[in-house]
Amino acid sequence: xxxxxxxxxxxxxxxxxxxxxxxxxxxxxxxxxxxxxxxxxxxxxxxxxxxxxxxxxxxxxxxxxxxxxxxxxxxxxxxxxxxxxxxxxxxxxxxxxxxxxxxxxxxxxxxxxxxxxxxxxxxxxxxxx
Length: 129
Ligand SMILES: [Fe+2]
What we know:
- The protein is an alpha/beta fold.
- The protein has a single domain, classed as Aromatic amino acid hydroxylase (Phenylalanine Hydroxylase), CATH 1.10.800.10.
- It has helices at 2-8, 15-33, 37-52, 67-70, 73-81, 91-95, 114-128, and strands spanning 55-58, 61-64, 87-88, 109-111.
- β1 (55-58) and β2 (61-64) form a beta hairpin.
- The termini are far apart.
- The relative contact order is 0.18.
- The protein binds fe (ii) ion (FE2).
- Fe (ii) ion is lined by residues 3, 8, 52, 67-68.
Protein backbone atom coordinates (compact mmCIF):
# COMPACT_ATOMS: atom_id res chain seq x y z
CA UNK A 1 0.00 0.00 0.00
CA UNK A 2 2.77 2.45 0.95
CA UNK A 3 4.77 1.48 -2.13
CA UNK A 4 1.88 2.22 -4.48
CA UNK A 5 0.64 5.34 -2.70
CA UNK A 6 4.03 6.94 -2.15
CA UNK A 7 5.95 5.49 -5.09
CA UNK A 8 3.62 4.94 -8.03
CA UNK A 9 0.82 7.47 -7.75
CA UNK A 10 2.72 10.79 -7.38
CA UNK A 11 4.71 10.50 -10.64
CA UNK A 12 1.45 9.97 -12.52
CA UNK A 13 0.77 13.69 -11.92
CA UNK A 14 3.52 14.33 -14.48
CA UNK A 15 1.88 14.37 -17.91
CA UNK A 16 4.91 12.97 -19.71
CA UNK A 17 5.10 10.05 -17.31
CA UNK A 18 1.33 9.47 -17.43
CA UNK A 19 1.48 9.41 -21.22
CA UNK A 20 4.38 6.96 -21.12
CA UNK A 21 2.52 4.66 -18.73
CA UNK A 22 -0.60 4.77 -20.89
CA UNK A 23 1.41 3.78 -23.95
CA UNK A 24 3.33 1.16 -21.97
CA UNK A 25 0.00 -0.41 -21.04
CA UNK A 26 -1.19 -0.46 -24.65
CA UNK A 27 2.06 -1.99 -25.89
CA UNK A 28 2.24 -4.47 -23.03
CA UNK A 29 -1.34 -5.61 -23.53
CA UNK A 30 -0.83 -6.14 -27.27
CA UNK A 31 2.35 -8.13 -26.74
CA UNK A 32 1.04 -10.19 -23.84
CA UNK A 33 -2.18 -11.01 -25.69
CA UNK A 34 -0.06 -12.21 -28.59
CA UNK A 35 1.85 -14.58 -26.32
CA UNK A 36 5.22 -12.99 -26.98
CA UNK A 37 6.93 -14.03 -23.78
CA UNK A 38 10.39 -12.77 -24.67
CA UNK A 39 9.07 -9.29 -25.49
CA UNK A 40 7.05 -9.32 -22.27
CA UNK A 41 10.33 -9.97 -20.43
CA UNK A 42 11.90 -7.03 -22.25
CA UNK A 43 9.05 -4.78 -21.13
CA UNK A 44 9.38 -6.05 -17.56
CA UNK A 45 13.02 -4.97 -17.62
CA UNK A 46 12.10 -1.53 -18.95
CA UNK A 47 9.53 -1.19 -16.18
CA UNK A 48 12.01 -2.38 -13.58
CA UNK A 49 14.90 -0.11 -14.49
CA UNK A 50 12.77 2.99 -15.08
CA UNK A 51 9.39 2.88 -13.32
CA UNK A 52 10.69 1.02 -10.27
CA UNK A 53 14.38 1.90 -9.99
CA UNK A 54 15.17 4.70 -12.40
CA UNK A 55 16.74 8.07 -11.84
CA UNK A 56 15.81 11.01 -14.01
CA UNK A 57 17.89 14.04 -14.96
CA UNK A 58 16.29 17.40 -14.24
CA UNK A 59 18.09 20.68 -14.84
CA UNK A 60 21.31 18.72 -15.20
CA UNK A 61 20.98 17.00 -11.84
CA UNK A 62 20.28 13.36 -11.05
CA UNK A 63 16.97 12.90 -9.23
CA UNK A 64 15.61 9.76 -7.64
CA UNK A 65 12.48 8.68 -9.48
CA UNK A 66 11.46 5.02 -9.39
CA UNK A 67 8.78 3.79 -7.02
CA UNK A 68 11.01 1.03 -5.70
CA UNK A 69 13.50 3.68 -4.63
CA UNK A 70 11.06 6.30 -3.38
CA UNK A 71 9.12 3.91 -1.18
CA UNK A 72 12.15 2.39 0.53
CA UNK A 73 14.40 4.23 2.97
CA UNK A 74 17.14 1.65 2.52
CA UNK A 75 16.97 1.69 -1.27
CA UNK A 76 16.85 5.51 -1.30
CA UNK A 77 20.02 5.79 0.80
CA UNK A 78 21.78 3.13 -1.24
CA UNK A 79 20.74 4.54 -4.62
CA UNK A 80 21.60 8.11 -3.66
CA UNK A 81 25.09 7.01 -2.63
CA UNK A 82 25.55 5.70 -6.18
CA UNK A 83 24.21 8.83 -7.92
CA UNK A 84 27.61 9.56 -9.47
CA UNK A 85 27.89 6.04 -10.91
CA UNK A 86 24.62 5.87 -12.84
CA UNK A 87 24.39 4.19 -16.22
CA UNK A 88 22.90 6.23 -19.05
CA UNK A 89 19.48 4.83 -19.89
CA UNK A 90 19.53 2.96 -23.17
CA UNK A 91 16.39 1.05 -24.11
CA UNK A 92 18.13 -1.83 -25.88
CA UNK A 93 20.61 -2.29 -23.03
CA UNK A 94 17.92 -2.11 -20.36
CA UNK A 95 15.72 -4.59 -22.22
CA UNK A 96 18.58 -7.09 -22.31
CA UNK A 97 19.59 -6.68 -18.65
CA UNK A 98 18.16 -9.21 -16.18
CA UNK A 99 17.27 -8.05 -12.69
CA UNK A 100 16.70 -9.50 -9.26
CA UNK A 101 13.63 -8.44 -7.33
CA UNK A 102 14.78 -9.81 -3.98
CA UNK A 103 17.82 -7.63 -3.34
CA UNK A 104 18.86 -3.98 -3.13
CA UNK A 105 19.85 -2.99 -6.67
CA UNK A 106 23.54 -2.68 -7.47
CA UNK A 107 23.21 -0.49 -10.53
CA UNK A 108 20.78 2.18 -11.64
CA UNK A 109 20.04 3.94 -14.91
CA UNK A 110 19.39 7.63 -15.41
CA UNK A 111 16.92 8.84 -18.02
CA UNK A 112 17.16 12.24 -19.70
CA UNK A 113 13.72 12.46 -21.31
CA UNK A 114 10.47 10.60 -20.74
CA UNK A 115 9.00 11.69 -24.13
CA UNK A 116 12.14 10.37 -25.81
CA UNK A 117 11.72 7.06 -23.99
CA UNK A 118 8.09 6.87 -25.11
CA UNK A 119 9.21 7.53 -28.68
CA UNK A 120 11.86 4.81 -28.39
CA UNK A 121 9.27 2.43 -26.98
CA UNK A 122 7.04 3.13 -29.99
CA UNK A 123 9.91 2.47 -32.40
CA UNK A 124 10.69 -0.77 -30.58
CA UNK A 125 7.04 -1.79 -30.77
CA UNK A 126 6.91 -1.06 -34.53
CA UNK A 127 10.06 -3.15 -35.06
CA UNK A 128 8.71 -5.94 -32.87
CA UNK A 129 5.37 -6.15 -34.67
FE1 LIG B 1 5.95 -1.11 -7.90
